[in-house]
Amino acid sequence: MRCTVNFKTYTNSIWDKKQRKTPESDQTVFYNTQPAIITEEVFEKVQQIRQQRHRQTKTGKSSIFSGLVFCADCGAKMYYCTSIKFEKRQDFFTCSTHRHNKDQCSGHYIRAVVLEDMVLRHMQMVISYVANHEAHFRAVMGDKLKLASDEAIRVSKKKLAKAEKRLGELDRIFMRLYEDRVNGTISDERFASMSKSYEDEQTQLKKEIETLTKEIDQQTQKADDVERFIAQAHRYVGLEELTPYALHELVKAIYIEAPDESSGKRRQNIHISYDFVGFIPIHELMQEEMA
Hints:
Order of helices and strands: EEEEHEEEHEHHHHHEEEH
Number of helices: 8
Largest sheet: 4 strands, mixed
Mean pLDDT: 83
Shape: elongated
Strand order of the largest sheet: 5-9-10-11
Strand content: 5-15%
Structural class: alpha+beta
């Protein structure tokens, strides 16, 4: 969505021409003033990718998973580890928390080639299911997102009501404070100190209200997210190789569990959070369809 922002700066008077930045809450935004070059979905995805910090390795090697892989236990990012002596099959991801403090998280890791194979197979199952059972996928994921969305909206609205109530209280406090200053009940220094504190709180509340309002608007659009994901999945029907573009367009994050070696064999699970829809219980969906 292209927009124009007015009143970014201001001056105190015609004699004081120094430009001062206007608070964002007082700026005026006009939306859809110019034709969009790219879609809003593509813009949002690019912003997500740009926010991900990719640690540059000394070898110059990189991984398509950098910035997407997290530890399922502590939630921290997993570092991509390689060496000029490593073959491709030896590169691996390890928990950053364990690497810095071994007592805070277990030392689980996963080889990059294993991760690539697991992610590709899971994506292939999801894409195939969407292509062949679109109606069931839409119904199940729509209900799942609606439940999560309804709860998120309820919590956000509660916080919003509390913030708006406090903002109204501050307006009344300002009025009483100003009257006390006029009547001489409090000194100018006391007035300045108290008003500064209340103004800072007001500014923070306005930002919180703006953020909560946006969150509520985003949650009410969750029904459209299923359709967006379905459209994306259809573009990759027949996916045979995991490409960076396919990975970043469909996947939001990957969480790696610690390996289970209780059976004598190393078994490890991953959980993939897909863009727009989050975690997809693909095995449960497949079982329901066969039942």
